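Below is a filled-in request sheet from our internal design queue. Each sheet records the structural input a requester submitted and the sequence that came back. We keep these sheets so that new team members can see what a complete request looks like end to end.

REQUESTER: design group, bay 2
PRIORITY: normal
MODE: inverse folding
CHAIN LENGTH: 408
BACKBONE (tokenized):
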């Protein structure tokens, strides 16, 4: 029996997977979050992840008791590297974890690769540095926080006026966003060229020797801009079979180059890319499973991402061989404009769709909601899957045409 140390927050399917294996766990709970009613409090230890030394010291009391360290959340990837190495357990090295959670460090490593795999970029120190980059590279541009995920405060800028306005808006909001979602990090911004083209994602596991085990699957991503919302959130993720073999190989090749450039080992890897006219370019790589991918791979391909993540944390091999090929999609709903949540249009019809596997409405009646570029999280999450591709396509089309967030 193995015992795992889960960092940061509870994720019920992960705990369920550990227990189904006959293993045990301890949750090193972030003191800034509340205990979940679904977890055994006796297995939880609260720590302040904003104090790395304290977190490492607390974990040190478990030396010899823990066999593997895991997390599924971006803000705990760096603490995982520090804690796992203090316990002499498998994990990415600390410098790699820093680069995987710091978009400036990540871009610098990508820039040192043998091929161009990411856009031109610069650190934003002030408005002058921002305008200097714009003068050199033109528009559109993207401004983004260095340490946040889930598209928070990422803004596209198509003119000098938008660039300055968006920069000032981000500066007003970034402190609060960092206090919620970036553990022990200082607010920081970068600017980069906007990459035109469809977005995709891939997933891999990297073993302790740096061997990359790429899952033979590519997800097509739709953004808020793609559906006319003027926002950078990922609206839908859907496994795609329509890419030509040459493009698939290009995406896998660039993904592997990015993983190697970061030096990822003993970790999952989640890669987001844009397929530009010049070829695939990496948006970012995370040393963790991609959002919702555990559900997607299990439903569509029968691949156990959580089980593989646990095996990797123990220093074991992975099994990513698919046993089926069925359609699956995950959609995040945001409002088109900020306001007070009034409901999900066509909710009852949505709940009756044969392909609906999961629906979670995060907002409550009367609560304020808004765009990801303004620092808000999604209003609702939908997971679709069906063995019948025709039924799946019908249900997905119904959602695209009829289901959206209503505000007042």
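RETURNED SEQUENCE:
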């Amino acid at each position: 029996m193995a015992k795992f140390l889960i960092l940061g927050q509870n994720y019920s399917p992960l705990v369920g997977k550990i227990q189904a294996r006959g293993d045990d766990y301890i949750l090193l709970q972030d003191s800034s979050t509340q205990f979940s009613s679904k977890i055994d409090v006796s297995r939880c230890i609260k720590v302040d992840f904003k104090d790395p030394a304290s977190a490492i010291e607390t974990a040190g009391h478990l030396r010899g008791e823990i066999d593997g360290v895991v997390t599924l959340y971006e803000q705990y990837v760096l603490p995982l590297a520090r804690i796992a190495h203090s316990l002499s357990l498998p994990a990415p090295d600390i410098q790699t974890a820093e680069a995987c959670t710091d978009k400036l460090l990540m871009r610098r490593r990508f820039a040192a690769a043998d091929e161009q795999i990411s856009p031109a970029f610069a650190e934003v120190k002030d408005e002058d540095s921002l305008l200097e980059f714009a003068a050199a590279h033109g528009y559109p541009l993207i401004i983004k926080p260095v340490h946040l995920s889930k598209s928070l405060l990422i803004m596209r800028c198509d003119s000098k006026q938008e660039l300055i306005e968006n920069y000032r808006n981000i500066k007003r909001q970034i402190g609060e966003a960092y206090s919620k979602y970036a553990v022990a990090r200082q607010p920081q911004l970068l600017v980069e060229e906007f990459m035109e083209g469809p977005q995709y994602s891939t997933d891999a596991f990297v073993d302790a020797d740096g061997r990359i085990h790429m899952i033979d699957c590519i997800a097509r991503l739709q953004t808020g801009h793609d559906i006319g919302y003027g926002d950078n959130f990922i609206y839908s993720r859907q496994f795609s079979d329509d890419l030509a073999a040459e493009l698939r190989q290009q995406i896998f090749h660039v993904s592997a180059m990015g993983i190697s450039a970061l030096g990822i080992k003993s970790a999952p890897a989640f890669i987001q890319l844009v397929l530009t006219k010049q070829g695939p370019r990496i948006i970012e790589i995370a040393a963790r499973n991609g959002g919702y991918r555990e559900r997607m791979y299990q439903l569509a391909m029968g691949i156990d991402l959580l089980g593989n993540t646990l095996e990797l944390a123990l220093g074991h091999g992975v099994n990513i061989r698919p046993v089926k090929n069925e359609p699956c999609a995950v959609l995040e709903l945001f409002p088109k404009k900020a306001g007070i949540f009034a409901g999900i249009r066509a909710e009852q019809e949505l709940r009756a769709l044969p392909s609906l596997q999961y629906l979670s409405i995060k907002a409550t009646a009367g609560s304020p909601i808004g765009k990801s570029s303004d620092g808000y999280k999604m209003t609702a999450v939908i997971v679709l899957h069906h063995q019948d591709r025709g039924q799946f396509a019908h249900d997905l089309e119904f959602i695209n045409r009829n289901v959206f967030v209503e505000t007042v």
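SHEET NOTES:
- The mean pLDDT is 95.
- The chain has three domains: 3-89, 120-193, 199-407.
FILED BY: M.R.
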